[in-house]
Amino acid sequence: METIPFINPATGEQFGEVATATPDDVTRAVKDMRQAFTVWRRRSVKERVRVLRKLQEEIIDSLDEITAVINQNTGKSRQDGLIEVMMTVDRLHQYYKNAPKWLQRRRVPPGLYVFKNYYTEPHPYGVVAVIGPWNYPFDLTMPVVCSALLAGNTVVLKPSEVTAATGVLIEKLFQRVPELAPFVRVLHGGPTVGAALVQSQPDLIFLTGSTTTGRKIAKAAAETMTPFIAELGGKDPMIVLEDADIKSAAKWGAWGAFYNTGQTCMGIERVYVVESVYDEFLREAVAAAKSVKIGYSPDLHNPNDMGPLTFERQVHIAQEHLDDALAKGAHILYGGKIEGMFMEPTIIIDVNQDMKLMQEETFGPIMPVMRVKDETEALWLANDTVYGLSASVWSNNMRQAKRVAHRLDVGSVNVNDAISHYPVSLLPFGGVKQSGNARTHGKEEILQFTQLRSYAIGRPPMPFDLATRMREPDHYKLGAAILRLSFGVTPQQRLQPIQEALGETEKTPNFGKLVRTAGMATAVTALAIGLLRAKK
Ligand code: NAD
Questions:
Q1: Does residue 416 sit within a domain?
Q2: Is 380 in the same domain as 525?
Q3: pLDDT tens for residues 343-362?
């Protein structure tokens, strides 16, 4: 039996393990969840909310257990673990309040078919495969699974193998709510298990992960035409303009670059500073980097800001990007040292767009800073990437800041802050370009787990219904008259059919007569509709 060990990246200690799912486990999970879907989809949204609130209760009761596991599993502080849980429960709290409204049936105007009722209804897909990452193993998994459930789907979750201990904890939390447990299955394992899940033909695949994995899954999903949505990588730029509060830009820019040891999809990965404030920005950024305390503690009161990188692969990528930049002429202004899994907060200057550091996702505590001439150059360089997740613009000239913000090819922009858009539960979050096509947060997150179905409801077509008559042959004149009356652009076009009906030939219509006739026609139609609706 293959197992995945749980390793604390800060200490190197193994603190447990879990069995890897076999191909049979994958097939069985999808089959079971397809069966369970027939039950869960019939529950009303209010009923699903009632059950999901029990999970919320369980999460809050298990707060210390959750932050302890996240801390051991990733090396981040208990407080940062708490922030993950906070973001999760805030988002779910909003969804439980609003989802019954968002998932309602919506009436659609009938157009010419006035005797029928038209409406749309969001329906769940069926079995949703959720494949998760390791950088925020709780917050990037739990709300997505709960959103899919809330929309009426059942879920097969494959958490990241890198943070398998958190995956096991998530599984336990679901199992502690007996009313919910039959509708979620968790499979532990790495890319092989993920690929088997994709192959098992779920009804929708949701990935949070790298663009490389997104590309692989998109190819596999295309073979079976399985719908696939994804939250992928980023290379988020920060632009500092001449009117910015430089101290604040440097402090919060550095925070955005170093938070979670730089392992944040919307972390600051590139900084472009206009030349008039470049030196001052660097001075302040170095001061901010110097104040970051590196270390690890399992205690609730942790004096450290920055923990270790979460696993070996991240250490290699950070080192590789650093070496590539230095070989191409960059210089380390501050930091640069890697010891074991810990890396100093690092500021690099003399960088250019050809370096890996400026093009590929680093996902480590490195802040490359480039001097630019002006807003135009900053914008051009910021958009010179295949990614488009988020960005940050700094200026006290709000007109200029907003102008730049709207020209950035990204899914979300912060003005005078970093990452502050993400914790806002009802503000949609997601990427453009190769950063993905999914949206989390808000109504959009819930609705993306549904397919809209349309209904046209009425009695058999009635002979006096204009839309019915038009379907019969030899009604060209009637059709043309309705078209002109309904969609004519000028008054002349609209009134022409009435004029013809009255036998008027003069160019200027008799408006008094026309208005009286139109009024009569409207009153008769309204009366007919009223009578018919009253009969239903
Ligand atoms: P990853 O792509 O290596 O792995 C993500 C998940 O995909 C894991 O569970 C992994 O086991 C699985 N997987 C890998 N290969 C697979 C395959 N061929 N078929 C099916 N599943 C497969 O990403 P990661 O290293 O876990 O996470 C970090 C990446 O995620 C970064 O690129 C980061 O920017 C991105 N990310 C994006 C967001 C966002 O919201 N846009 C949020 C967090 C992380």
A1: yes
A2: no
A3: 999 999 999 999 999 999 99
Residue 291 falls inside a structural domain: yes
- Residues having CB within 6 Å of any atom of ligand 1: 131-135, 140, 158, 160-161, 190-191, 194-195, 198, 208-210, 213, 216-217, 231-234, 265, 361, 363, 389, 431, 436
479 CA → ligand 1 middle, Å: 56
Question: Mean pLDDT per segment of 10 residues, for the chain of length 536 residues?
Answer: 97 98 98 98 98 98 98 97 98 98 97 93 98 98 98 98 98 98 98 98 98 98 97 98 98 98 98 98 98 96 91 98 98 98 98 98 98 98 98 98 98 98 97 98 98 96 85 90 92 89 66 68 68 60
360 C-beta neighbours (distance < 10 Å), count: 19
Q: Provide the token pair at 381.
A: 């360089």
432-458 exposure pattern, b = at least 16 Cβ within 10 A, e = fewer = ebbbbbbbbbbbbbbbbbbbeeeeeeb
The tokens describing 287, both together, are 């001061």
Q: What is the pLDDT of residue 470?
A: 87
State whether 477 and 379 are in the same domain: no
Same domain, 82 and 157: yes
Does 521 map to a domain?
yes
Q: Is the same domain home to 327 and 224?
A: no
Whether 265 is catalytic is: yes
Residue with CA nearest ligand 1 atom 13: 191
Domain check: are 225 and 272 in the same one? no
Domain containing residue 282: CATH number: 3.40.309.10
CA 486 to chain centre: 41
Same domain, 412 and 500: no
Residues 91 and 173 in one domain: yes
- For residue 40, give the CATH number of its domain: 3.40.605.10
Does a structural domain hold residue 64?
Answer: yes
Task: For 53-103, write each residue's pLDDT tens digit.
Answer: 999 999 999 999 999 999 999 999 999 999 999 999 999 999 999 999 999
Residue 42's contacts (CB-CB under 8 Å, 6 or more residues apart) are none
| Beta strands at 204-208 and 366-372: parallel, antiparallel or unpaired | unpaired
CA-nearest residue, atom 4 of ligand 1: 209
* Residue among 131, 142, 236, 437 whose CB has most ligand 1 atoms within 8 A, to mutate: 131
- Ligand 1 atom closest to Cα of 429? 40
Asked if residue 253 lies in contact with residue 341, where contact means CB atoms within 8 angstroms, the answer is no
Q: Residue 434 C-alpha to ligand 1 middle, in angstroms?
A: 13
Is residue 217 domain-shared with residue 292, that is, in the same domain?
A: no
Among the options 231, 284, 361, 375, which is catalytic? 231
Select from 261, 241, 363, 254 the least CA-distant residue to 304: 261
The whole domain housing 341 covers 237-422
The tally of domains found in the chain comes to 3
